[in-house]
Amino acid sequence: MLTPRQLQTLNFIRHFMTAHQHAPSLTEIAHGIGIRSKGVAHRYVQALAGAGYLTLHPGRQRGIELVQEDRDDMLSMPLLGYIAAGQPIEAIPGQDVLNLGELLGADRYALRVKGDSMIEAGIQDGDTVIIEHRMRADDGEIVVALVDGEEATLKRLKNRQDGCVELIAENPEMLPLCYAAERVVVQGVVVGLLRRYP
Fold first, then answer.
1. What number does CATH give the domain 108-194?
2. Domain ranges of the chain
3. How many CB atoms lie within 10 A of CB 145?
4. Residue 117 annotated in active site
5. Which of 14, 93, 105, 109 gets the most CB atoms within 10 Å of its CB?
6. pLDDT tens for each residue of the chain, 198 residues long
7. Which of the listed CATH numbers 1.20.1250.20, 1.10.260.40, 3.50.30.30, 1.10.10.10 matches domain 4-66?
8. Active site residue: 38, 76, 114, 155, which one?
9. Among the options 25, 76, 117, 158, which is catalytic?
10. Cα 99 from Cα 78, distance rounded (Å)
């Protein structure tokens, strides 16, 4: 199980290698994931190698190699058609494949939800939300917001004309939270949801 930073590092390496046809340097990795320390980037790369995602070639310039496994197969399942949640419809077998890699792919990570502040958006306590790493979001999007550099919360975003940021719960029993814009940092936007049924 990769940490969000390790996953971000792996996704950066994948994108870089696709774009440039060679591996990034540690300096490029650090810059690409928004940190300054090459040492920390090195630890992420070592962790990815230990987890089997990368092969490292010591002494070779840009000596990072992606492990070539068919991960699309690991992240896909048959998509057999449609099912009615209203009036019954004719069952028509399908031949498609649902690729979960599109949901779980680049610059994305998962968070387990605690609490019921977003229940009217269909997000329940215990659900897992899929977050796309972003530093900006549009009004109305559900975001991971870091407040005062300490507390992270999942709320709907609204930028007010007075310069404040409103974080809105999707629960009628909870009032919106208002903060000066400099106190709130957007860390990602909800792009999907996973729920396991007993």
1. 2.10.109.10
2. 4-66, 71-104, 108-194
3. 23
4. yes
5. 109
6. 678 888 889 888 988 887 788 999 999 999 999 898 999 999 999 999 998 899 999 888 889 998 865 444 445 566 656 655 556 656 555 556 666 666 666 677 788 899 999 999 999 998 988 888 888 899 999 999 989 888 889 999 999 999 899 999 999 999 999 999 999 999 889 998 988 887
7. 1.10.10.10
8. 155
9. 117
10. 9
